[in-house]
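As promised in the previous annual report, we have extended the structural survey to additional targets. Below is the entry for Molecular chaperone GroEL.
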Amino acid sequence: KATVVRALCLGDRRKEMLQDIAILSGGTVISEEVGLTLENTTLDDLGTAKRVNVTKENTTIIGGAGAQADIEARVEQIRKQIEDSSSDYDKEKLQERVAKL
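The corresponding structure token record, generated without further manual editing, is:
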């Protein structure tokens, strides 16, 4: 089975959220910015999970196939961004991303 979801955020926040999902699921973000289009995407580019629940407002990924080391590295990267941020709003959004990972 496969599913496609739309990221609800915009701009750089959207790109970062999609990268979080890719790392969690062991997939690759498909974007022309990195030289990937739907036309040249293979099954190896898609992530996997034991279960994905999708509603209008939320997507929950359970048992993503991403490497634990990659997920932990992503969490550390986000925590560093939290330390470097001066915006309370940005810090809150970054903390939400850590919690989701």
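The two ends are 23 Å apart (CA to CA). The chain has a mean pLDDT of 93. These points will be discussed at the next consortium meeting with the crystallography subgroup.
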